[in-house]
Amino acid sequence: MNLKRLIKHLSMSRWQLRRYFPEKSLQAIELAIKSSETRHQGEIRFAVEASLEGAPLFRDQSSRERAIHLFSELRIWDTEHNNGVLIYLLLADKRVEIIADRGIHTKTGDAEWEKICRDMERYFQHAEYEAGVIAGIQAVTQHMIRHYATEHNTRNELPDQPVLL
């Protein structure tokens, strides 16, 4: 177990999450997702977690493993065209993971998702959390438009509100 990581997670609290993502930022992120989803048939969810707790923390669960778990828990896989995308931020580690369902992942691939994650993390290094998330949503949107474009999508299979864990 990484002692430095353990201390970061134990010292990160839920109220700090609200400091990084106040209500105004959450509304802007939700609006970015809503706007994005009018241009394609895909579904985007954003989830942010202050820190890992309990067994996941002491097992040294990676941000990737946690994101995969949440992808399932939030039922992002449960879309008609298998084109749901989770953008997950583990705040204590300042790590972003993108988990894409098989419909979109096979068309885009790991390298593209990784690039978006690293670009978002650069924003976070400068404490630009809202801007970083919105830039990530816009980048994911470009991939969705390329593969699932529509002139006006009125169907919304998943909630657009950010998930605070």
Automatic annotation (TrEMBL):
Name of protein? TPM domain-containing protein
Q: Source organism's superkingdom? A: Bacteria
Pfam families per UniProt? TPM_phosphatase (PF04536)
Domain TPM: residue ranges:
23-142
